[in-house]
Amino acid sequence: MALLESDVPIREVVTTDPEKAKALENDVRAKILDMLATEEMTIEEIHDELHRRGEEKAETTVRHHVNVLKDAGMVEIARLEEAGGGTRKYYKSNTRIFSYDLPEDAEQTLAEAQETATAELAGLVETLYGEHGDDIEAVARDMKPCEYCATQHYEEFVLRELLNRALIDLTENGTVESVRRDSEDAGDEAESHDDEDDR
């Protein structure tokens, strides 16, 4: 007889490659990524900013962490400058880590938005499989570690990567911000019309 039985639904999915997962094992590296997402910095500047944030790390340790992130493909050299007979390297992150907790009532507040997102994504997934299903399945097959492994999880990973990269594209080219502003403007306009109707 079971002492406990519970249906445990999937609530979160984290997609990353093993090299990046290993690089993120250290919380200092997550802080470095956060710092380098907004500006280019040298090792010395990273060291000083970490110190300001309460992380007492030697400059050699900071250099090691940056090199681990660079080897994982999450940080790049953004520019080089001549400095006192040598070269100064500026690093920048190409990876953004969101490490937040939603407020307790967020699930209830966002329930309708979640329904909308689910319905819209169902149509998008159908379109993706209809137009690019062979490509998605081919990539998933190439990812399989052995002939006995099922491909479903690999296909889900490919889909999540496609959606994530599309969202990154929309964020980087300003579409998300533009839609947000347009939505706010439309809301302000509707509110203004309601005020006029009340007069």
UniProtKB/TrEMBL annotation:
Q: Which domain of life is it from?
A: Archaea
CDD domains hit by this protein = HTH_ARSR
Residue ranges of the region described as Disordered: 173-199
Chain intervals with Acidic residues compositional bias: 185-199
Q: What are the HTH arsR-type domain coordinates in residue numbering?
A: 19-115
What keyword terms does UniProt attach to this protein? Plasmid
The family database entries (Pfam families) matched by this protein are listed as: HTH_20 (PF12840)
Q: Which GO terms describe its molecular function?
A: DNA-binding transcription factor activity
Spell out the protein name for this chain. Answer: ArsR family transcriptional regulator
* Taxonomic source organism: Haloarcula marismortui (strain ATCC 43049 / DSM 3752 / JCM 8966 / VKM B-1809)
The taxonomy runs:
Archaea, Methanobacteriati, Methanobacteriota, Stenosarchaea group, Halobacteria
